[in-house]
Every structure is written in structure tokens, then in C-alpha cells.
Automatic annotation (TrEMBL):
Name of this chain's protein: Cupin-like domain-containing protein
Gene3D superfamilies associated with the record: Cupin
Source organism of the structure: Duganella alba
Source taxon at top rank: Bacteria
Sequence ranges assigned to domain JmjC in this UniProt record: 115-272
High-level lineage: Bacteria, Pseudomonadati, Pseudomonadota, Betaproteobacteria, Burkholderiales
InterPro entries, per the entry: Cupin_8 (IPR041667), JmjC_dom (IPR003347)
Length: 337
């Protein structure tokens, strides 16, 4: 019998200005019950779905958004098609007011065709929204995005930034896995994805344990929570998360930020370069490169280059904005040879 996820640790009683560095730099997920309960958006959504929809309309100023449309037979799951050479949804660009009207017209349908506006910058599509509905992240330069839809399922994936996600309308179930569960989640293509991030191929509603037997082990390490309007969750960098919207109208507001300088590139670039340069080397050579990366990257410390004069350390010196620029230019020349 597969294990059931453990509950995510919770804190209650905090408000939008009460987020501490201990919370925002944690390495374990945390549910923040009622964190945004004072938001006008949350209060409108608690009144009823149409009041929540109307609140969004009041802040809208003619922006076009990207949306995904799926058939009712998909069960809300945005995924690949059967042959994994396309997807089971149609991407469209539309006025947000049109998307909201489509959601409103289908509130009573179950199942309903799936409608989803994903990761749209709030200040672009809903100017003024954050004046009344926002969190104090202690000066962090976070990207604030909004996600709007009906009953949807987003496959398990990871994000590089740390993330606080606020349920502003509806209910959502979050199921999280620590980074070391990668091998048990049966992740699909890295460079051909539904929305930018590689995803688990397991259908969490109907997991096929014959096809994906190691997913049973992943469930032993899973954590889960169901959140309602005003609740929030902190998702640490690189944690896998599956998100299911449970209501006919759902709004999620999330804040992404990195604990590293802006001049640092995404490590995904290093992974893609490793496919090009290392993955198909003979085993003994891969083992040698594993030791090089351990020494210079994963276990690097002040002793790594201490035997080299400071002026001669080059890329072994601490990275700066100027150093990052120079290194990026060097790599581009190498790759474009």
C-alpha cells in the first residue's frame, strides 16, 4: 500500500508584514495559515466567486495575457499528448476580461473545460492590485505573479527561486517532495516541456505503479497540505511541487526570489552544457569530472585556491558582477567557435 504524504509544518497568526528571514531562508516547506487573510481580494473571494472575479476586473487595464485551454476530458491536468510530441491543451493570448468571463460562465460545470492563466506579472495586468494585496518580504526583489483558473492540475516540477505562494481565491492542494526524490518522480523531457520546467510523468490522480514503481518510494518522502483563501505556503528552492486547484474559481499570487546575485546565471545552463560536454564520455572520464566538480564547485571552500596568489586565481576567485560578465563572454566565444 503506497504511503500517504505527511502534513507540511504550519504556523498560524502571522500577517503580511510578519515574514522573518528564518521563514524566507528555510530549507523545509512551511504553511502560513491566514497570512493574507486581510487582503481585499481574499475577502471578496470568501464572499463568493463572482465577487472575487469582479475584484480582479476592477484592477484590469486592457492587458493581454497568455492562457491555456484544455478539454473537460483532461480532468484539469495540463500535460503531454499521448505520443509526447505535443500537449493536451491549446495556448492562446486573450484579454484577461475575456478569460474571467469564460471562467464565470463555466462555474456550474463539473467537469468543465479547463482554463488557466499562468505566471502573469501582476503589475502588468492588474496595476494597483498590489497596493492593497501584498506581502513584506524584507526588501527582497521578488517577482510577483498571478495565476488564475478553474479546476486545474499542474504536474510536479521544481523552480530555482524560493517561493511564497498565496491562495487568494478557491482551494489548492500542494504536494511537495525534497530535491533528492528526482530519481523517483520519473521526470519527462528537459528541453520540451508544457510550461518551461521539466515535469513528473506520473498522474497523481491515478499513479501507475507498474510503469512507475519508484514513485511509491517518493510518496514516503512527500509532504502535503490543502490551503484556502488567505493561506500561504513557503516552497524552498528546488523542491518538487504538484499543485491542484480544487474549486471552480482559483487565484494564486506568488513571489519568486533568489538567494544569489542577479549576475549569476541559472544552473540549468551548466546542466545543458554538461549534456553537450560530459554526459556521453566514457565512464572513467565521467568519474574524473565528477571529482573535479566536487573539488571546485560542490565542496569548494576557502582552501580550494588558497595555494594560488590572490591576483592569479582568475575564476577561482569569488564571483563578482564584472567577473561574471567576463566569464560569460569567454563562454560565448567558446560555444560559438
Amino acid at each position: 500500500m503506497p504511503a500517504s504524504p505527511e502534513p507540511i509544518r504550519e504556523i498560524a497568526g502571522l500577517g503580511p508584514a510578519d515574514l522573518t528571514d528564518d521563514i524566507l531562508t528555510a530549507t523545509q516547506p512551511l504553511v502560513l495559515r491566514g497570512l493574507a487573510g486581510s487582503w481585499p481580494m481574499v475577502r471578496a473571494a470568501l464572499e463568493n466567486d463572482r465577487a472575487g472575479l469582479d475584484y480582479l476586473r476592477r484592477h484590469y487595464q486592457d492587458a493581454t495575457v497568455g492562457a491555456m485551454l484544455g478539454g473537460a476530458d483532461a480532468g484539469g491536468r495540463f500535460f503531454y499528448n499521448d505520443s509526447v510530441d505535443g500537449f493536451n491543451f491549446q495556448p492562446v493570448h486573450a484579454k484577461l476580461t475575456g478569460v474571467l468571463e469564460e471562467i464565470e460562465n463555466k462555474l456550474a460545470l463539473d467537469p468543465a473545460p479547463t482554463i488557466y492563466v499562468g505566471s502573469t506579472t501582476i503589475d502588468t495586468c492588474l496595476p494597483g492590485f498590489r497596493e492593497y494585496n501584498d506581502l513584506d518580504l524584507g526588501g527582497r526583489d521578488a517577482l510577483a505573479s498571478i495565476w488564475i483558473g478553474n479546476r486545474t492540475r499542474i504536474a510536479a516540477h521544481y523552480d530555482l527561486p524560493d517561493n511564497v505562494a498565496v491562495v487568494a481565491a478557491g482551494r489548492r492542494r500542494f504536494t511537495l517532495f525534497p530535491p533528492d526524490q528526482l530519481q523517483n518522480l520519473y521526470v519527462g523531457p528537459i528541453d520540451f516541456t508544457p510550461a518551461g520546467q521539466a515535469i513528473s510523468m506520473v498522474d497523481f490522480h491515478r499513479p501507475d505503479f507498474e510503469k512507475f514503481p519508484k514513485f511509491a518510494e517518493a510518496l514516503h518522502h512527500a509532504q502535503s497540505a490543502e490551503l484556502g483563501p488567505g493561506d500561504a505556503i513557503f516552497i524552498p528552492s528546488m523542491w518538487w511541487h504538484h499543485i491542484e486547484a480544487l474549486s471552480p474559481f482559483n487565484v494564486l499570487v506568488n513571489y519568486w526570489w533568489r538567494q544569489s546575485p542577479d549576475y549569476m546565471d541559472t544552473p540549468t545552463n551548466a546542466l545543458m552544457a554538461a549534456f553537450l560536454t560530459m554526459r556521453d564520455l566514457p565512464p572513467a572520464q565521467r568519474k574524473a569530472w565528477q571529482e573535479i566538480f566536487r573539488h571546485y564547485i560542490f565542496e569548494a571552500d576557502t582552501e580550494t585556491a588558497a595555494h594560488i596568489p590572490a591576483h592569479a586565481r582568475g575564476v577561482l576567485s569569488p564571483l563578482t558582477a564584472d567577473g561574471a560578465r567576463a566569464l560569460r563572454g569567454h563562454l560565448l566565444k567558446k560555444l560559438n567557435r
